[in-house]
Write a structure and sequence with these properties.
By secondary structure, this protein is of the alpha+beta class. Helix content is 26%, strand content 24%. Strand 6 and strand 7 form a beta hairpin. Helix 2 runs antiparallel to helix 3. The protein is globular. The termini are far apart. This is Protein kinase domain-containing protein. It comes from Meloidogyne enterolobii (Root-knot nematode worm). InterPro entries: Atg1-like, Kinase-like_dom_sf, Prot_kinase_dom, Protein_kinase_ATP_BS.
């Protein structure tokens, strides 16, 4: 039986369209949408399938009261790709967006960094696990350094670092700012307090 393209391998006959969406969703026997990947203050993200391009996507739906947040995230991505030369690989890329529905179609990941570490911890011995953590940490520092040439993420945490085939990619740029757009002392949201960087807390954006 044909299945979806990601590691979840959901049978395609379980997917169907809703309303006039170009994407299909998995439903349970009661008619409820399944495949919720995450939910935040401004949006929900679902596992969806595009029969048009024959691939799985992560579809981010913004709640109706968060039009500005949707617009800022779309505009940030456009400007970030423009300034970075559109050749940066280690972020979750957007495929397209729909202004009317407040939705963004993105790459879908296997899991977040937290889940990845938990799996490696249970499957590796201590030395193998520490070696993997060291390698991923070094690689992430390189990735974040490249991103910070152009922008500041503002909400980096394990849940916003996604893994695709064992490679980390930075996700969720909802709070992110293009560096040249940031004004010292500007009043804006930072993201998750527990993961806030010292330079943001001190309004020192470099």
């Amino acid at each position: 039986m044909p299945t979806c393209s990601c590691h979840r391998k959901i049978p395609l006959n379980l997917f169907r369209n809703i309303a006039d969406s170009e994407y299909s969703f998995e439903f349970d026997i009661y008619g409820n949408i399944r495949g919720l990947l995450g939910e935040g203050a401004t949006a929900k993200v679902y596992h969806a399938f595009s029969f048009k391009i024959n691939t799985c996507i992560a579809l981010k739906y913004f709640f109706p009261n968060f039009v500005n947040e949707y617009t800022e995230e779309v505009n940030f991505y456009k400007e970030f790709m423009k300034q970075s030369g559109e050749n940066i690989q280690n972020i979750i890329h957007q495929f397209n967006h729909n202004d009317e529905k407040l939705e963004i179609a993105m790459e879908i990941a296997d899991m977040d960094l937290k889940g990845y570490i938990e799996i490696k911890r249970s499957n590796y011995n201590e030395s193998e696990f520490l070696f993997e953590v060291f390698n991923q940490t070094a690689y992430l520092l390189f990735v974040i350094s490249n991103i910070h040439e152009v922008a500041v993420h503002m909400d980096l945490k394990p849940q916003n670092i996604m893994m695709i085939n064992g490679i980390p990619k930075i996700a969720d740029f909802g709070f992110s700012k293009i560096k040249r757009w940031i004004k010292k002392g500007e009043d804006f949201q930072y993201g998750t307090f527990q993961f806030m960087s010292p330079e943001l807390a001190n309004f020192d954006h470099g």
